[in-house]
Amino acid sequence: MRSLNLLVVEGNLQKENENFRKNGIQTHAESLKDSLEYYSKNINIDVFNPCSEKNFDKILPNIKKYNGLIWGGSSLNIYNDCIEIRRQISFMKECFKNIKKILAICWGMQVAVTAAGGEVKKSSKGAHIGIANDIEINENGLNHPLYKSKNKKFNSPAFNFDEVATLPKGAINLASNNINKVQSLHFKSGISDIWGLQYHPEITYHKMISLIKFRKEKLINVRKCFKDEEEIMKHIDFIEREIKLSVKESRMLELKNWLNYLKTAA
Question: Domains along the chain?
Answer without folding.
Answer: 4-265 (3.40.50.880)
